[in-house]
Amino acid sequence: MSSSTTQRRRGDTRQRIQDVALELFVEQGYEKTSLREIAERLEVTKAALYYHFKTKEDIIVSVFADLTRPIDELIAWAQEQPPTLTTKREILRRYSESMGAGAQLFRFMQENQATMRDLSIGETMKNWMFELVELLRTKDGPLTDQVRCVSALFTLHAGLMYLQHVEGDPEETRLAALEVATDLITQAHEAA
User: Fold this and answer.
1) Beta carbons of 73 and 91 less than 8 angstroms apart
2) Which percentage of the chain shows pLDDT scores above 70?
3) How many CB atoms neighbour CB 191 within 10 A?
4) What is the CA radius of gyration of the chain?
5) What's the fold here for domain 1-54?
6) What is the pTM of this model?
7) Domain spans of the chain?
8) Which of 54, 65, 141, 178 could form a disulfide with 96 if both were Cys (CB 3.0 to 4.6 A apart)?
């Protein structure tokens, strides 16, 4: 067996562990899910699970790092751009896409807020939100326009978290939330 084949299999196992663990964390809650349950769902021994991850926190931190890399890249990109309406629309579009790709993780974070505060990733998420707010808001605009800009960001979250049970395609819901968020940003900039 070649080294690349061995590496790919290990990567596949790691990905399977992440997927199953996240699925269980969303279904049962982080605190109520044990490593034993994750191993049982995967039909592997706990020793096999420990080979890849020693704790539940190791698993969720790795899921978080993998699924949120585009947000780190977005923030780095946005910090180098002029604070124009076009830039802010692009921030919203990219953030919306990242949330859509990591929907299950974002639901986990929403449904396990107390746990998130205790995990290292909770602080990272909080810092992102403050950074994104700063990148989106109209610094010199009236307070109502600043609220519109901040509300645009949270509209994306509302679309993912609170409209998940609305009948229809989740992608259509994400795009509808993006449209409303874009309208809020546009309205704030037109008033400025």
Assistant:
1) no
2) 93
3) 12
4) 19
5) Arc Repressor Mutant, subunit A (1.10.10)
6) 0.81
7) 1-54, 57-191
8) 178
